[in-house]
Amino acid sequence: MTNPNPIDDTADDYSRFEARLVAQDQDATRVVTADVGETTARQLVTELIDNGVVTPVPGKRVFVHEPSETAFDSSTQLAVFHRGWTAARNADKEGE
């Protein structure tokens, strides 16, 4: 058997192409949390308070995320946490 011509060998090309596709799939399934602005965070926290998911503690100026029992002093931190927490719960449900 003769050695294959390295110019005609496309195995590496295929591997790189497949790796790019996998990376794109992973990007599509990830929840974006880094782009939560102050206005968006306030709106989300207000919705969460209205739905009973978050309890504000006025004297301490904190928000308590009831399902996880985690306290936050920033609406942005809480919004990012809740998005990630929700994404993780949804991923667990899909994995079952």
UniProtKB/TrEMBL annotation:
InterPro entries per UniProt: DUF8069
User: What sequence ranges are listed for the domain DUF8069?
Assistant: 1-96
> Pfam families from the entry?
DUF8069 (PF26266)
Q: What name does this protein carry?
A: DUF8069 domain-containing protein
**What organism is the protein native to?**
Natribaculum luteum
